[in-house]
TrEMBL record:
The keyword Endoplasmic reticulum does not apply. Residues 28-228 form the Fumarylacetoacetase-like C-terminal domain. It is an enzyme of class 3 (hydrolase). This is Fumarylpyruvate hydrolase. Keywords: Hydrolase, Metal-binding. Gene3D superfamilies: Fumarylacetoacetase-like, C-terminal domain (3.90.850.10). It comes from Pseudochelatococcus lubricantis. Pfam families: FAA_hydrolase. Its EC number is 3.7.1.20.
Amino acid sequence: MTAYVFPPPPQPSLAVAGDSARFPIRRIFCVGRNYAAHAREMGRDPDREPPFFFMKPADVALDTPTQIPYPPDTGNLHYEIELIVAIGKGGTDIPLDEARDHVWGYGVGIDLTRRDLQLAARDAGRPWSWGKSFDRSAPIAPLRPAADVGHPASGRIWLAVNGTVKQDQDIADLIWSVPEIISIISRSIELRPGDLIMTGTPAGVGPIVAGDNVTGGVEGVGEIEVTIT
């Protein structure tokens, strides 16, 4: 039996819709600027260049619906609605036509972003971690098995703040599709069961403040609700 100098932290996990068993989280991969309109609104060229990635710690994910305190060190907290891919079968150099075989299920998440910190880091050529990887920065609705929802390649993705729709697009507009993302990641890093992929956000990102109620969803996958306190 392994001895530790203090008790190890609990295994991060997410709820599964209609099941008492939970999905254990290993890592969270995030795809940057994966919708052309969002790339433009962030001042970047949306041409189909190789995708880039950043990561969030597993323990910043949390179940929803939930209340999240407005985070410290920012005056510009943004929402970013995303389709979540939950990996159930690991692999390296995964062929494109086999990528879906590695997916356990799908979900809806919000990539909360301290935009002022992210942009300052970007402009200085520094990592985005302080803008993207802070506590409670990845609220995610209960995951749904692919056996129940299939492998969605199209469908509305949307987000509203206090009932006003801010983001509204179709996941068919992803620059890099889910199978492509899985295949590309697996060329550089071995995917493992428990890995999550946040696939990118549509145009319409913007600020939220304490008291705001944020709702959203992906057609055929689920809906999410978060209140900023």
